[in-house]
C-alpha cells in the first residue's frame, strides 16, 4: 500500500524548509548522598569525582586523617540497591597539607589520584598516585613524580587517564606531563607546553586525554584580551613525539572569560568551559564544543543554560560520556543562594540540547553544587564542597537519569496548525476521523538500542488499514488529506489492519541509532471521512531520543 506520491513530495519539501526538532526529555532523580561517616569540618568533600561501573569516587582534599589537610579519597560501591563506603584511600606517603584527592580519574580497573602539595621529592612539588582494582580492593601500584620537581607547581591538581597513559597538569609552571606504562613501569615520556605560552597563562589548569590526543586548558591566555583564555590540542605522531596540533579560541572570546577553566575530550570532540563568560548577564558562563576534521578543529556549538542568570558560572565543571554531557553551574541560585546545579545535555543529529536540570533538595545556600561533576551512562555524580557552609564538610550527590518514552506533539485539537476544513479533534490527538474525535498515538517502554521495549500504540481509529511512519524531521503540522502530517518520512513500516479501534507496533530500534531523535506517526485510510476529499488521515506525532 502506498501513499500518494504527490502528497509525500509536498510534505517533504515543507519538512526540510521548516525543520523543527522535538526532543524527548531526560528526567534525573536524586538518589544517594555520599558523605563519609568520618567527615570532618572543612573537609571540602565534593571534588575529585569519578564514576566507573558500580564504583563512585569522591575526594575530600582537606580531610585530616593522615595529617592536617592531608586529604583522602572515598571509594563507594553500588550493590544494586545501596551505595556503601568501600575504602578510604591515601597515598603511601600522604601527610599534612598534601591535598590528596582534589583530582581523580578512572579508566577500567586503574585510577590516578592527585596530591598537588605532596612533598615526596621536594617541598610541595606535588605527586600523582596510581591505584589498581584487585578483586574489589584498590591498591596503590605507583607514584608519579615529574623528572624536574618544582615547589608550588600544582603538579597533580588536574589529571586524566586513558589506558596505559596518564596526563598530569602543573599549571603554576605552565606545563603538562605525560606518563606511559612501559614494561610494568610508569615513565615520563613528554612535557607539554604551548608554543606561544607565556608565564602566568596557567597552561595545564585543566587537562583531558583521549588516545593519542591531549587537551590542555589555559584560562590565563591573553591572545584576545586579558585572561580571555584558550585550550591547546596536542597529538602523538607516528614517531611517538607529542606535537601541538591546534590552539582553540572561542569565536566570541572576550577579556575575563577564562576559556579553558575546565575541559573534556572524547575522540574528535573537545569540550571547553568558560565559567566567567558574560552574556545577557555577567558571569553567566558558557561551554564551547570544538570538533576535529582531519587535523583542523572547528567550533561547532556554544552551550548556555536555558535559565541563565548572573554569576551562575555555568561551565564550572564538565564531563562528557558519548552523547551525554554534564555541566556544572556552581553559582546557580535556583535552589538557594549559590546552591549550584548540574545540567544534562544530549547530542542528537550532531547538536547538543539541554535535557535535564538537577540540584539536591534541602539546600540552604552556598553549597556550590556542580563544582565538580562525573557522568557514566545514566548516572551523574555532582559535588557540593561547601555543603555545611561555615563548617563545610562537603558532600556529593548521585542522580539517576532515564530518557522517557518520548513525548507527543503536533495535535489536531486546535492548539497548533488547524485541521483541514477547520474541524477540531480531541485533546492531544489527531484530526477527527469517522471513529471519533481523533486518533491518539502514545508510546511506552525503553527506547534503548540494547534493550528495546519501546512500543507505539494508536487508539480511536476506524477499523481500516494503515501503517506506522518514522522520520528524523519533526513538523508542527502540515495539512494533508484529512489530517496533519507531523514528520518528514524516512521509513514506512508494513501495513497493519486495525482491530477494535486500536493498533500497536514495536521493534523500531532496527532503524535507529543511539543519540538519534526519531519521530513517529500513524497514517490510515478513512474513505468515509471526505471533508477534504483525501480519504486518509494521521494520528498525532511522537518524538523520542534513542539511547545505547
Q: Give the count of helical stretches.
A: 1
- Uncertain runs are 1-24
Report strand %. Answer: over 45%
**Average pLDDT reading:** 91
Task: Explain this structure.
The protein is mainly β and 548 residues long. The chain has a domain at 5-22 and 406-545. The model is unreliable at 1-24 (pLDDT under 50). The strands form 10 sheets. Strands 29, 32, 35, 36, 38, 39 and 40 form a 7-stranded antiparallel beta sheet that branches. It has 1 helix and 40 strands. The longest helix has 13 residues, at 5-17.
Task: Summarize the topology.
Layout: H1 5-17, E1 26-34, E2 45-52, E3 55-60, E4 72-78, E5 83-89, E6 100-107, E7 110-115, E8 127-134, E9 137-144, E10 158-162, E11 165-170, E12 175-182, E13 185-192, E14 206-210, E15 213-218, E16 230-236, E17 242-248, E18 263-266, E19 269-274, E20 286-293, E21 296-303, E22 314-321, E23 324-329, E24 341-348, E25 351-358, E26 373-376, E27 379-384, E28 395-403, E29 407-409, E30 440-444, E31 455-459, E32 465-471, E33 473-480, E34 483-488, E35 491-492, E36 496-497, E37 503-506, E38 517-525, E39 536-538, E40 541-545
Antiparallel strand pairs: 1-28, 2-3, 3-4, 4-5, 6-7, 7-8, 8-9, 10-11, 11-12, 12-13, 14-15, 15-16, 16-17, 18-19, 19-20, 20-21, 22-23, 23-24, 24-25, 26-27, 27-28, 29-40, 30-31, 31-37, 32-35, 32-36, 32-38, 33-34, 38-39, 38-40
